[in-house]
Give the backbone structure.
Amino acid sequence: MTTVELELTTRSAATLGASTIMKALVYHGPGKLAWEDRPRPTIQDPGDAIVRITTSTICGTDLHILKGDLPSVTAGRILGHEGIGVIEQAGLGVSEFHIGDKVIISCITACLKCDFCRRGMYSHCRHGGWILGNTLDGTQAEYVRVPHADGSLYSFPPGGDEEALVMLSDILPTGFECGVLNGQVKPGDTVAIVGAGPVGLAVLLTAQFYSPAAIYMIDLDDKRLAVAKQFGATALINSADGHAAHHVMELTDGAGVDAAIEAVGIPATFDICQAIVAAGGRIANVGVHGKPAGLHMEKLWDRNISLTTRLVDTFTTPMLLKVVESGKLQPHKLVTHRFAMNDIMRAYDIFGNAAKEGALKVVLKNNDKANSRASSAA
Amino acid sequence: MTTVELELTTRSAATLGASTIMKALVYHGPGKLAWEDRPRPTIQDPGDAIVRITTSTICGTDLHILKGDLPSVTAGRILGHEGIGVIEQAGLGVSEFHIGDKVIISCITACLKCDFCRRGMYSHCRHGGWILGNTLDGTQAEYVRVPHADGSLYSFPPGGDEEALVMLSDILPTGFECGVLNGQVKPGDTVAIVGAGPVGLAVLLTAQFYSPAAIYMIDLDDKRLAVAKQFGATALINSADGHAAHHVMELTDGAGVDAAIEAVGIPATFDICQAIVAAGGRIANVGVHGKPAGLHMEKLWDRNISLTTRLVDTFTTPMLLKVVESGKLQPHKLVTHRFAMNDIMRAYDIFGNAAKEGALKVVLKNNDKANSRASSAA
Amino acid sequence: MTTVELELTTRSAATLGASTIMKALVYHGPGKLAWEDRPRPTIQDPGDAIVRITTSTICGTDLHILKGDLPSVTAGRILGHEGIGVIEQAGLGVSEFHIGDKVIISCITACLKCDFCRRGMYSHCRHGGWILGNTLDGTQAEYVRVPHADGSLYSFPPGGDEEALVMLSDILPTGFECGVLNGQVKPGDTVAIVGAGPVGLAVLLTAQFYSPAAIYMIDLDDKRLAVAKQFGATALINSADGHAAHHVMELTDGAGVDAAIEAVGIPATFDICQAIVAAGGRIANVGVHGKPAGLHMEKLWDRNISLTTRLVDTFTTPMLLKVVESGKLQPHKLVTHRFAMNDIMRAYDIFGNAAKEGALKVVLKNNDKANSRASSAA
Amino acid sequence: MTTVELELTTRSAATLGASTIMKALVYHGPGKLAWEDRPRPTIQDPGDAIVRITTSTICGTDLHILKGDLPSVTAGRILGHEGIGVIEQAGLGVSEFHIGDKVIISCITACLKCDFCRRGMYSHCRHGGWILGNTLDGTQAEYVRVPHADGSLYSFPPGGDEEALVMLSDILPTGFECGVLNGQVKPGDTVAIVGAGPVGLAVLLTAQFYSPAAIYMIDLDDKRLAVAKQFGATALINSADGHAAHHVMELTDGAGVDAAIEAVGIPATFDICQAIVAAGGRIANVGVHGKPAGLHMEKLWDRNISLTTRLVDTFTTPMLLKVVESGKLQPHKLVTHRFAMNDIMRAYDIFGNAAKEGALKVVLKNNDKANSRASSAA
């Protein structure tokens, strides 16, 4: 046993120094978060990597956790499933990365070996899926243990912008895979995106990879709609009047849209999608739903539509990296606020009042001091 | 004007003789049908063909009409959207068929020119779609006018079996396109079909084109399940105990099915499909729904499933004909009862009590006398 | 007979006036062209439309014809398969267009009814395909008869630019369908286009619908490469040194390109494509080939590549129109020279010396005088 | 170092006993094979498994090696890339299999982590691909070391038939992926397979998953054609008269075939495929080519065809297993001869004279003695 552990860490830096404590954001039950000391993670399986976090961010899902909506997240859990960092230790089974490599951490952990991974459905990996900041400690910390590192990390490109690329941990592949790919967006299409929050805007940014002719953005908040305009939306619809569907049908001369993409997660917005999808069109769900929705099968049964659901697989991360590097996707646009990691409690406050604060994504950076300490330890 | 009409019929047989009357099944409002005299149809547009019906059949949809469920069907309408026959007259614009050609009449009329037809979505043809026996007089008669004949008729192959091939008017393309193609059935798949009526059995027959490893058939009626067994189902589930979903999950070791195909059209059976679809699987709806269904988005949002609806396009009819000719599909299996066309009232009785009568499809044939009269007229 | 002809033209303008003569560019055998008087075309079949040409252009294929390379084109033929115009007469079977409609004429004539048209393969239409300016008189004239008008014409959008949209007759769908669609260009891809002539540039413009990360343009002519740069190419390779393939492999770190698109039509450029395609990549042929090519099966057999050929189907014209209208495609960029139609002989001279003249596409316009004469005739 | 090796083998059986020698078929240069003593393989990397071979077979490629055609295979190499066996030892990184598991060994080794593996292109794995019996010692032995075992082995199903399932190591996925999938065989299609050797027959068996209407088998050998008839071919063409293409065109009324599948690997048979592919059809290459082929681009450029090449990826092995288990595929049909493994020299003689001997696949079994010895060792 001792032998094994020793073996498993032979690829780590020679010595980690005295410090085995780190700071981390810990969930202590509904409404309770603390930035506190925790033991640094260590290698537990041959496929593990220990990553020193340099940049992280907060996801809307983290707010749901904070409200107590996700029973899988128990008190004592370090939150966060997005991040950029540097590999400090690697198990013997890690072959694609080396100590010192800067990496993007995927929100989805993939063993690559199970039947789901073999089909590219990493979201349903039998040994992974969404586990970081959920059933395992996450990335809003100084260090994180990433299981199945070879399938769950992506090389950070030389000269890349951490702030931009941390958007590849979750939000951009989510918008792209669940919204754009499932919505089968094509050149010349008319697309509607319901919800102009960060994930809806990620759909908006990545839908433009396929040159749709029109993208309608639907939201209750004019400020967010204004951002959507800057990001490439061709028409804005404030749904506060309860007639969003009517407006879309007018804009499309009664035809409806080729792709209706739901990026909110409640029955009302799901209803809008059903009302505006054209015959032969697609409804692509991106939102996280907490309760059942109604489906107007009496109207839809003969409309030749498809409706898809999806937890992001992040299998498109390499492709997204190439598009970012080519300059055709500029994810930093989504970042509105920046904090030192140890200011994360304040970052949660701002992000928790996103509409009022005009916040989209807030970026968290482990500050110089933390970094230098980590460096000296490595 | 006179000139035009004359022109439009120049391709008809030289003279139609004295008879301009035919027999037809006429809907006279909910619960009221009559087999009565009606004027023979005539060419009204350059794309029209007048087809003398030799074989027809009754569809479950006809029973819905009879109940008054379809407001688009008004009193005075000749019913029927399936049939085999011989072209008696053709408008000037008809170029793919000639007088005397034996043809299969598609339940879907396709102009081939509109945007939907250009995409292969004949079901939503702007000048056609399902109109025969709905908004236009149909095929349960001695003659029918088929608009856009070039897009709505298919050549009857030499030596073909009318009884078998009349199944290509509707039920086989419906089962195949809405169920099998939309369900993306693949070799090795596990498939569940909910509903072992004629259309569910059509799904069963055509699903086997793709060599799935298992096909579960779910129905309340053991007699129909026994038929499904003969047709190739690998497991039978009687859902009368209310635990059909549970049984399917047991059979699949908790994984669920790759494709769940709904062939009934009510919320309860739609629910079964939601409960048994595997992560990454497909729900393909075939049934005609009269009311909304619930959709368990709280369970499905992260399951990577697709759900499709479709009115049959019959664009696969040429492919189905080839498979029938190759012997790999034997549609006559679906035929349980045969009647002379002028016995159609009795045929409706039998078909209306299908479960009790053990009826699947009932075939209607214009008898010799009718045929010879028609011949002499031509 | 007389009756029929009369009928067929009942939808034409009330009277065509006295003039039955028009000007047209006539091929009189290799090397011989003349702009001369010819009878105006008349309706011959119910599906015909007579279109008064307002804008046309010259295709590289026309130069091949002029050299005598295409035996299907016989002396006396009016050339041209691209054009914009106004419908002057329409046969009885034409239902999608009306007299006075401004239309884009597709280079491909499609009956929409035959088996190939039903599959969207209009290029192989059994009653059409490429016939205008080939086996039937074409568009480099004041009028043209377009058979199967409903499948061969597209509505000119209000406010459209004729100069830009005449590029939708042939070159843009050719580049898009044969090059981009067959090459399966995807976001993040590395694409090489061999040949920076008009059709190669059409590939370049439409490849960008899919946000590839890199597009390499390969040609012998630095001027054309400079144009490619302006049109969005990310790297330029002058192949004059005979080492184009080597340069591409260097640029891709030895991996090769995801899509190699051949837009010349000779064995040497086809060889380059074979040498640069990555394992798992696609070679999409756009060029017109006059002789066999070698295929390095000894190197390619285990490389998992696909190679496609295609005559344009123009089935994407409606989609391309939407993208042009959205501003995401600007086809007028391809136009370098403009002539009055009756200057067409000079236009051929310029286009025949394209490299020297810096010519891409030359646009021909029936001048005011011609137009007013046509108008007065209508 | 010692520690590592010790660790790497901790999952092996407690002791392997005294024997570290095994028998194996060794290639000693062109024309020279020997069944001789060799050291048993041992774990070298954490992903390795040592498999005791129970069943193997000989591939046509092995005969090419024997002739000296493959320079990558050097003297001293143990041949064989197909096999069934039992895991005797497993490295620490192996997580999907355990000691004692019976497995099917894929001819393709897949790390699952590299970019090609992530795309399902295991054939081009950066750390694997076809290496067994090529650049690493292979399966015609008592034991074999399988690198990247988790990606390169498949669980042998309970109650399976070794003789049948050893066909899943190579020949069935090769026929299916390179021929049937790449050939896009669909219900109703007309398919031609050029070459009725074992791999052509594997194409024939798996093409029937998709219910094509007709399958023409083309070969020079009437005996093999007779086998093809039993296996489901609908027409047989002996190409000895040099007019195979002509016969196919007659059978298809001049249309040609939807899919032409090349399963020989020489220019002459590749030519036949070019001559018989229909407009819009596919040529799928399966054969291993040693020299360039001619491609009639002057005839094919406008025919809208696709041509594919492929080294098998074996990504369909799980699907093929399901189809075998369902009874819809019966691979044992391919087996004509059976030998004890230590009779392998005789098996090579028979297989090397396959036509004369009427041999398709020859199965090699490690006999009881070998097995019991192996067992006692484990």
In short: The first helix of chain A runs from residue 2 to 8. The mean pLDDT of chain A is 92.
